Amino acid sequence: MREVELKMKERAAELLQSGEVARVIGWKKGEFYFDPTPAVFESADELDGFVYNGFCGANLSKYLIQQSKKEGKTAIFLKPCDSFSFNQLVKEHRIKREDIYVIAIECQGKLDVEKLKEKGVSAVTEVEENGGEVVVSSLYGTVTLAKDEVLLSKCETCKSKVHQVKDEEIVFNEMQAGKKDRFEMVEKLEAMTEAERFAFWKEQLSKCIRCNACRNVCPACSCIKCVFDNPASGVAAKANDSEFEEQMFHIIRAFHVAGRCTDCGECSRVCPQNIPLHLLNRKFIKDIDTLYGEYQAGETADGKTPLTSYTESDAEPNDVMNGEAK
Amino acid sequence: MQEVTEKKEFTPNIVAFCCNWCSYAGADLAGSSRLTYPANVKIIRVPCSCRVNPMFVLKAFQQGADGVILCGCHPGDCYYVTGNYYTRRRMSLLYSFLNYMGIEKERTRVEWVSAAEGARFSAVMNDFVKQVTELGENRRLTDLRVKEGE
Predict the structure, then answer these.
(1) Tens of pLDDT, residues A125-169
(2) What is the ipTM of this complex?
(3) Do A251 and B98 touch (CB under 8 A)?
(4) Span A98-113, pLDDT tens digits
(5) Which of B70, B89, B110, B142 has the most A C-beta neighbours within 10 Å, making it the best mutation to test the interface with A?
(6) Of B15, B80, B14, B28, nearest to B50 (Cα)?
(7) Of B76, B94, B100, the CB nearest to A197
(8) Residue A100 phi/psi, 5° resolution?
(9) CA angle B27, B31, B37 (to 5 degrees)
(10) CATH topology of domain B14-142
(11) Are residues A246 and A317 in the same domain?
């Protein structure tokens, strides 16, 4: 990862110095090693704090909506999964492809600091990735862990290691996609009874503190005016004051991105309450795949989405509910 | 004060979204043909079944509906040519999703009723009300404040 970081920094400096781009979107060193934050660099001098390490899980593509409207070209570093969101934003006319210089970067799966904490590793100062293992140095010593056990949940089921869009590439090693089935948990929920599912979601969603982080981070959820900011919607309160509001917020949020969600997993990554929000989106993805044919949002920057198209022989809703639809 | 000991029989609140051109006219025909459907079906007229935003369905449940049924023209017969094709996809996904959240699947339904199908409208509504009555009150998707003081 170190060589990738150095190369990225070098390219960012070159692009900024030559004036080819006016700004670069990447990651900046946070307060600690394990909390790099997305940042915009506007000159080569600012690049001192530039980092790219195992904790750079954030999907940068949403920042383009604001940044690419400014004067000059914007360069951005995209991991393979982020490139799906990029295409989706181009498709929805949120950003213009020609305003942006895409640098495709290597990603070997990003780490979850919470999972490291569960393993008793805190105060991480450095992480070396070594094949299937990670060597984590912290203030309390060095430990070696199996990488699969400390990956972000979105990386466990990594959907692709192929960049869907790129102007240049910084990839040194072959990337391995995740092996886990992303619909495993959805299927498990589907097999439960209605009452069990209700109990599951009630338990999960009642943790929600309505911080709106899932909404704000979602690259598909990019409206400037949002229903949840409308005081008349009944779901714009700072806190959920009924069970219904918890469900309403999450149902509407998931439905708004149905057919457009690229399954980037950012919602679950940012949730401070660890609600498995991606399971909501994946239900839509799974239903769309089975009912209307396999569809991966963001695979291309044009074409129709499942909910803005139809065929005359689509399944009837009542058949879908009774499990008779194919 | 007299204590109320008598237990009221459960009569569900049903919200029916009917498109202006087919299903609403179908309801009209049911009426003029003297066919009955339960009085607890509250019809909301919409220009096209495609007008129904998923939020409408949720709002109906929030405000105390026990079942929501959506009626439109038969696929292929939409007054706006393609509206109900979009409805069909949208509602398949929404209802399947609500069920995934644990909402009973018997509470939601989509039926295509044409302007000539007064008898069908009546039959569909009677059947749906019966189904929801058997299921009982909607407790999973409701704002408890709305029912207070009822």
Answers:
(1) 888 887 788 888 889 888 888 888 889 988 988 888 899 999 999
(2) 0.90
(3) yes
(4) 999 999 999 988 999 9
(5) B89
(6) B80
(7) B100
(8) -130, 140
(9) 75
(10) Rossmann fold (3.40.50)
(11) yes
B-facing residues of A in 261-300 (CB < 8 A) are 280, 283-284, 287-288, 291-292
Amino acid letter for position A258: A
CB contact under 8 A, B144 and A245: no
The CB-side HSE value for A325 (13 A sphere, CA atoms) comes to: 22
B27 to chain A, closest Cα gap in Å: 21
Which residues numbered 212-241 in A keep a CB inside 8 Å of some CB on B?
Answer: 227, 234
Residue at token pair 């229903």 = A227
DSSP 8-state symbol, A258: T
- Work out the minimum CA distance from A218 to partner chain B, whole angstroms: 20
Residue type, A164: Q
How would you class A236 by CB atoms within 10 Å of its CB: exposed for 0-12, middle for 13-18, buried for 19 or more? middle
Q: Do A116 and A92 share a structural domain?
A: no
Q: List the structure tokens of A197.
A: 């599912």
Q: Given A251, A307, A312, which is nearest B58 (Cβ)? A: A251
One domain, residues A300 and A233 = yes
Distance from CA of B62 to the nearest CA of A (A): 7
Give me the count of residues in chain A: 326
The range of the structural domain enclosing residue A61 comes to 2-109+162-170
Distance from CA of A74 to the nearest CA of B (A): 37
In tens, the pLDDT along B17-66 reads: 999 999 999 999 999 999 999 999 999 999 999 999 999 999 899 888 99
Tokens of B72: 């439109």
How is residue A235 written in tokens?
Answer: 């779901």
Q: What percent of chain B has pLDDT over 90?
A: 81
